[in-house]
Specification:
Glycerol uptake facilitator protein, mainly alpha, about 0% strand, about 250 residues, globular, single chain
């Protein structure tokens, strides 16, 4: 499997399970209706872990433009490979959202809340303050990229021990779950431009009854914030941890 296809499929799996758990909680007459924030954050964390397990060996399982650009910024991923990874991630996120739409097809018409329908696909702030929302996304993504690099470093997972490949994806999922629980409240923790923009485009194009607008006025925040945060997280790791241990690319 080529890295492009791996990133596409991995991001598709991530969004299918991540947006899927949101749909299960917020859409009317589902078995998981009103399951709450713990269910959503756990579903996203497990979805990330499974997606990383599926494609880590083929592409490094970035599954996130913020991760790809962050690694490139510190010289741990070739800039020449960035456009293909970003395209694959965007396509995968769009397809994952389409799969969720199909899986919950009867539930769109029985859900009147336009905000809930949009929330299945993409993020929105609890309190709309663009500057504060941007800062939240920067912080969350910086924690993500720094956490991924630190957790997967040889100090924690010895290379070629079996534990590095066996436990790394699970630990990344736990990290995403932790970010959702601790930092997800203000903005819904996009922490991934593809995860937000791809499904937002799907929401715009798909025939969803009474869906309302796709909130393009907010859409730049879950793109710009995670990219800035990803670079900051990678640079912090490079400055504080990398001088002491060799880096493992996730």
């Amino acid at each position: 499997m080529s890295p492009f296809i791996a990133e596409l499929l991995g991001t598709m799996i991530l969004v299918t399970l991540g947006d899927g758990v949101v749909a299960n909680v917020v859409l009317n007459r589902t078995k998981g209706h009103n399951g709450g924030w713990i269910v959503i954050t756990a579903g996203w964390g497990l979805g990330v872990a499974l997606a990383v397990y599926c494609v880590n060996a083929m592409s490094g399982a970035h599954l996130n433009p913020a991760v790809t650009i962050g690694l490139a910024a510190i010289g741990k991923f070739a800039w020449a490979g960035v456009p293909a990874y970003l395209l694959a991630q965007m396509l995968g996120a769009f397809l994952g959202a389409v799969i969720v739409w199909l899986a919950y097809l009867p539930h769109w018409a029985v859900t009147e809340d336009k905000g809930a329908k949009l929330g299945v696909f993409c993020t929105a702030p609890a309190i709309r303050r663009p500057a504060a929302n941007l800062v939240t996304e920067i912080i969350g993504t910086a924690v993500l990229v720094l956490g991924v690099l630190a957790v997967l470093s040889p100090d924690n997972l010895v290379p070629n021990s079996g534990f590095d490949t066996g436990f790394a994806p699970f630990l990344v999922g736990i990290l995403v779950w932790s970010i959702g629980l601790s930092l997800g409240g203000p903005t819904g923790y996009a922490i991934n431009p593809a995860r937000d923009l791809g499904p937002r485009l799907a929401h715009f194009f798909l025939p969803i009854p009474g869906k309302g607008h796709s909130d393009w006025g907010y859409s730049w925040i879950p793109i710009v914030g995670p990219i800035i945060g990803g670079v900051i997280g990678a640079v912090i790791y490079q400055l504080a941890w990398a001088p002491h241990v060799p880096l493992i690319t996730p």
